[in-house]
Amino acid sequence: MSQNRSGRRLNVSFNSPVVLGFVAACLAAMVLNLLTGGASNRAVFSVYRSSLASPLVWLRMVCHVFGHADWNHLLNNMMYILLLGPMLEEKYGSANLALVMLAAALLTGLINFAFFPATRLLGASGIVFAMILLSSITRTTDDAIPVTFILVAVLYIGQQVWQAVAVRENVSYMAHIVGGAVGAGLGFAMNRMKK
Questions:
Q1: Which of 17, 49, 73, 109 is the most buried (most CB within 10 A)?
Q2: Backbone phi, then psi, for 47, in 5-degree steps?
Q3: Is 10 exposed, middle or buried (0-12, 13-18, 19+ CB in 10 A)?
Q4: What would the mean pLDDT of 114-143 be, rounded to a whole number?
């Protein structure tokens, strides 16, 4: 705490519990991964094709969003989440934002498991793209789609499709596209339910 010019104390506010909790969990997963020499990412914090009889498979379907390949990967995702998340949590509420994040994690995990058997998916990029698309839906009416949403969708999703086809990198563009679709779909649904 510190004091401002009027002599009143300035307090620190725990303003976004879902976002801050998620960031803390990702940081803990990164530290655990470093301490285990990568074993925790392989066991819990990434999703890949393996036996459905293993209980860890189902845990990995969601927990892959907490694992990251390295500090750069973690910091890039956390910057977007810390930038967009508090605004979204304030607008939609903690429970609704947690639902969006869970849906993005589960859907990207299931799709990766089913259609990309040779790929090990980890990281919060799907959640980042869900938040990007969700943040572009500020106000909607029943008969109008915001121009900002159209522009963001075309630019971000279009870029991901282009890079998936034209650029060969170790990036899961599927997670970006699916996460964006989850953010857009649930954003429109939540805005409609508010009316």
A1: 109
A2: -115, 135
A3: exposed
A4: 85
Q: Which residues contact 105 (CB under 8 A, 6 or more apart)?
A: 61, 62, 63, 64, 65, 126, 127
- Calpha distance 179→194 (Å, rounded): 22
d(CA 52, CA 104): 21
| Residue extents of the structural domains in the chain | 2-194
3-state helix, strand, coil in the chain (%, to 5): 65, 5, 30
- Fold exhibited by the domain 2-194: Rhomboid-like fold (1.20.1540)
Token pair 């008969």 is found at: 143
The one-letter amino acid at 81? I
pLDDT tens track for 35-52: 999 999 999 999 999 888
**Per residue in 48-98, pLDDT tens?**
998 888 889 999 999 999 999 999 999 999 999 999 999 999 999 999 999
